[in-house]
């Protein structure tokens, strides 16, 4: 029987190296594969695939600083971290953000807080409560 592939989420990015580095640092993921068009990050049975936007389309996309937050996206990755406080600090250093302590909430055995990456993609970090 063939092994099942790991669950994953694909995030399309203008700058795959910058975005992969962001998630590698903020969510403590390791690089499982990298090539010219995508970088696969791995963490305990889950993969985050940072996939490059084709050059022709990427040239039309402007990333501002801070980035315009893409809040109307119907999917939000929720990623486990050892510490929301640590994730908040690293995200700020790397061009993204994790909401303030006052924006954290608790449910079903975890604490959570939303944030955004350097390209404006919304994500959530979760730690055990």
UniProtKB/TrEMBL annotation:
Record-annotated Glyoxalase-like domain positions: 9-125
Alphabetized InterPro entries for the sequence: Glyas_Bleomycin-R_OHBP_Dase, Glyoxalase_6
Protein name in the entry: Glyoxalase-like domain-containing protein
């Amino acid at each position: 029987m063939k092994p099942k592939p790991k669950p994953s989420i694909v995030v399309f990015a203008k700058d795959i190296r910058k975005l992969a580095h962001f998630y590698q640092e903020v969510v403590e993921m390791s690089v499982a594969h990298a090539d010219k068009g995508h970088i696969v990050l791995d963490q305990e049975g889950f993969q985050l695939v940072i996939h490059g936007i084709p050059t022709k389309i990427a040239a039309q996309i402007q990333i501002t600083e801070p980035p315009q937050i893409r809040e109307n996206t119907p999917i939000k990755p929720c990623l486990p971290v050892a510490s929301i406080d640590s994730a908040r600090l690293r995200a700020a250093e790397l061009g993204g953000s994790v909401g303030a302590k006052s924006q954290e909430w608790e449910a079903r055995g975890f604490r959570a807080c939303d944030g955004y990456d350097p390209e404006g993609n919304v994500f959530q970090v979760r730690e055990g409560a």
